[in-house]
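forwarding from the other thread:

> can someone predict this with S-adenosylmethionine?

sure thing
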Amino acid sequence: MRQQRGSSVDGASSEVSDGARRSAGDRDRFAQRLFTSLPSRYDSLGKLLSLGQDRRWRSAMVDHIVPARPRIMLDVACGPAGVTLELADRTDARIVGLDLTEPMLRQGVANVHRAGRDDRIGLVLGRGQQLPFPDATFDALTFTYLLRYVDDPQQTLGELARVVAPGGVAASLEFFVPPDRFWRFWWWGYTRLVLPIGGWLTGGRGWFTVGRFLGPNISGHYRRYPLPWLIAAWKLAGFEHVGVRLMSLGGGLVMWGTRREDDGAPSSGAEQPSPTSGPTSGATTDATGDR
Ligand SMILES: C[S@@+](CC[C@H](N)C(=O)[O-])C[C@H]1O[C@@H](n2cnc3c(N)ncnc32)[C@H](O)[C@@H]1O
């Protein structure tokens, strides 16, 4: 397998390049350990454990990219390339998928090859916090389930914004905590009991570990970075027209925004938005729950 330094986006081929191995910190190592045993059955078990919702959520995120008709785009935390392949199906863009965990990317290489998309998709080993690309390289960007795995989400958002050209679009997908108390009760039971046990029964130890980790991790993440904080963080990073949509009664969160034209220097993370800024502080909200 060809190894390259990770900064080139030319010659989109489904090979893993070496952009990250040396600088992985503790959080990165944790994520790598967590995801290393998952790749081969990631998509099928992910679907099962999300009660079939994940595909719908991905699709809702990609809906925000398609109208922009990107020519070249980046999919961060691409894992085995499920989102990357949907982007290839629904746009004409050349797509770079980037992920921290080599086994996930290797599964991505196989999936891209099987789908016959090697001509338009290239996969790169790298960190979302430190992208191996020049400023404004891409005219669209997606990232999925990333911010819970980084030390400084504001810094990471700034880094993601840096590589998007002014006027380019970004969209993300994450789990969320249902805001409604009734549904949060059931979500809590599902994430604390069904996920670990179902993970164990269907995928063995690796999936048990992920199943046990996910619920508390999601709750803790949003205690620290509630939705108003996130919306403000996107804006501080250099995005405007920031919108949010809660999915499946609040179990999923799709966000999107447009890279501002007016400044070329997104926040490096030195500033932090206030967690108390109002949830709608200028954001488009589409938070009516399940659809
Ligand atoms: C839940 S998987 C999502 C995979 C894929 N996007 C999907 O939706 O099917 C999360 C991915 O994030 C990757 N990841 C975690 N921390 C990362 C980081 N700092 N930079 C890049 N990728 C990271 C993991 O290796 C893993 O493949």
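The first helix runs from residue 26 to 36. thats all i got for now
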